[in-house]
Amino acid sequence: MAGVTITLPPGLEEQRGLGPDWGRWLDGLPRSFADVLADWELRRDSDELWHGFCSLVAPVRTAEGEPAVLKISFDGDDESLHEALALQHWHGDGVVRLLRADPRRRAMLLERLHRRDLTEVWDIEACEIVAGFYPRIHRPALPQLATVTSYVEGWLDNLARMPVDAPVPRRLVGQALSLGRDLVADPASVGRIVHGDLHYENVLAGDREPWLVIDPKPMSGDPHYEPAPMLWNRFEELAGDVRAGLRRRFHALVDAAGLDEDRARDWVVVRMILNAHWAVEDAQRAGRALNAEEQTWITQCIAITKAVQD
Fold it and tell me: How far apart are CA 174 and CA 171, in angstroms?
């Protein structure tokens, strides 16, 4: 589209450090953005550009003047490969409405929501709100979706090779490996659409409903896989009795959604120890010691793992 030029947000430009595929995508993103605007007869509604970890988002207007947002995602991100497919399947039931999609360009035109998210809501109330979405989004899985277990199986293989001197208790590593392998082998660990990253910032205020879910990483999985991100996000707010605060969140999610407590706990243990392991892997890959941020993150992962079990 003639005259359309954009400067990518600095936070998105930083992803060039993740590898050449990111650099290639970022180099072509301004042109892709302009092309989609032209092809879909959209006009920018402001100079604002928002971004996620792997996407560019802009407020736009349709040819009919309706407000919407245009989202273009990194084409190398497997986790969001079927985002449009899942949104289409949910058809706006508790989630942002998909208006148009071009899977080849990883472009989506979405219902415009407000910028307010659940970080503004008391964490226990937010947990109950999110738990209310679980039954709505956990529909029978679409055949195109990768399974949670296919990912977890590979992650566990890597976890089993974690150095013995890593700052993660071997007892917890062994427990995560045992629980994870049992879950991978269990047929109940697949078969439902799971969001994969449902937390406070992925629920925005809307007009059709007070809150709507955004940004799924859809997989065929187990509803009990979902709660962990609600525990590790907003961790810094858990001043004082961290254990009690984490347990309140965990039980709010489990009780409000009618989940099996033991199964939800097992998935939290597996996910948190995997998160800690990835921090160790990042440092290893870079050939350096753990930095302060990674050490803090590992400590938080261990605290959550213990809190849901004590």
Answer: 5
Fold of 10-111: Phosphorylase Kinase; domain 1 (3.30.200)
Dihedral-angle region of residue 266 (phi above 0 means left; psi in -120 to 50 means alpha; beta otherwise): alpha
Task: Note the pLDDT tens digit of each residue in 172-212.
Answer: 999 999 999 999 999 999 999 999 999 999 999 999 999 99
Judge whether 197 counts as a catalytic residue: yes
- Of the chain, the end-to-end C-alpha distance in Å amounts to 59
The label of the residue with tokens 């849901």 reads 308
CA 270 to chain centre: 16
Residue pair 222/183 in contact by the 8 Å Cβ criterion: yes
Placement of tokens 């970080």 in the chain: 119
Its pTM surpasses 0.90 = yes
**Encoding tokens for residue 253?**
């999610």
Catalytic residue among 45, 75, 93, 197: 197
What fold does the segment set 118-307 form as a domain?
Aminoglycoside 3'-phosphotransferase; Chain: A, domain 2 (3.90.1200)
